[in-house]
Backbone:
C-alpha cells in the first residue's frame, strides 16, 4: 500500500494523540495510587461519621456520654490565672445563657465536670507554697476568704442560666479549685455542680476529694501548684493523676 505524504502526516498525528492520551491516563492512575483515594473520597473521610458522632462535644445535662476535651490550657496543665477576691465574687468572665455545658462522666456516682471553657479555674495569689501553714492548712481559713452569700446567690442564679440548668436543692455553687486548695472567688472558678442522682443535699463526691488533696498538700506529699492544676483539669482523676 502506498501512502501519500498527507496520509502519512495524518496517521502520525493520530498516533501521537493516542500516545499522549495514554501517557496522561497512566500519570493519573499513578497519582491516585500514591494518594490512596480520589479527591472526593479524601473530602468525605475528613468529615466525622454521622453514625459515630463527634465525641469531643460536651454532653447535655442529664445525659451520659464521653467528656468533652478540656481547653488547651487545662489539658497542658498550665497554672490557673490568679485573682485575689476574698470579699466578693470577681466577675472576670462574661458568659451568656446556655453557653456552657456540664460534662457528665457518671451521673449515678455524681462524677460531673464543668465546662472547661467557662470554668477553667482560678487561684488566690495570696496563697503560696511558702505560707500554706498560715492559710489553707490553718483551721478556719476558708471562712475568712469565702465570699458572702448575698453576693454568691446573685452570681449563682446567672451561672445556672449560663449552664442551662434548672435550680435544684442538690446543686452546689462550687469552687472548681476549692478554697482549701487556694482557689478564689471568681466566675472562672465557680460553677453550678449537679450532685449524684437521688442525692438529698449538696454534699457530693468532690467534697471528699478536696479535703484529701488539702491534707496531701499540708503533709507535703504533693505541691500546692500540682494539686491546683490536677483538680482544675479533672477532679475525678486528680488523686490518681497526682499518684495518691
Residues:
Amino acid at each position: 500500500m502506498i501512502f501519500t505524504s498527507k496520509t502519512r502526516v495524518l496517521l502520525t498525528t493520530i498516533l501521537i494523540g493516542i500516545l499522549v492520551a495514554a501517557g496522561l491516563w497512566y500519570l493519573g492512575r499513578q497519582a491516585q495510587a500514591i494518594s490512596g483515594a480520589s479527591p472526593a473520597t479524601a473530602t468525605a473521610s475528613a468529615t466525622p461519621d454521622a453514625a459515630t458522632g463527634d465525641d469531643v462535644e460536651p454532653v447535655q445535662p442529664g445525659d451520659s456520654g464521653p467528656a468533652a476535651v478540656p481547653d488547651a490550657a487545662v489539658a497542658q496543665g498550665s497554672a490557673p490565672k490568679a485573682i485575689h477576691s476574698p470579699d466578693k465574687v470577681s466577675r472576670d468572665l462574661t458568659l451568656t445563657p446556655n453557653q456552657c455545658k456540664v460534662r457528665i462522666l457518671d451521673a449515678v456516682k455524681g462524677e460531673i465536670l464543668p465546662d472547661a471553657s467557662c470554668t477553667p479555674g482560678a487561684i488566690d495569689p495570696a496563697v503560696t507554697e511558702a505560707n500554706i501553714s498560715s492559710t489553707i492548712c490553718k483551721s478556719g481559713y476558708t471562712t475568712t476568704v469565702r465570699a458572702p452569700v448575698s453576693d454568691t446567690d446573685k452570681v449563682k442564679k446567672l451561672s445556672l442560666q449560663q449552664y442551662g440548668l434548672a435550680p435544684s436543692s442538690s446543686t452546689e455553687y462550687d469552687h472548681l479549685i476549692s478554697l482549701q486548695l487556694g482557689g478564689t472567688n471568681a466566675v472562672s472558678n465557680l460553677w453550678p455542680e449537679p450532685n449524684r442522682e437521688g442525692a438529698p443535699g449538696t454534699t457530693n463526691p468532690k467534697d471528699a476529694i478536696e479535703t484529701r488533696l488539702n491534707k496531701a498538700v499540708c503533709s507535703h506529699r504533693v505541691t500546692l501548684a500540682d494539686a491546683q492544676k490536677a483538680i482544675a483539669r479533672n477532679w475525678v482523676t486528680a488523686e490518681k493523676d497526682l499518684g495518691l
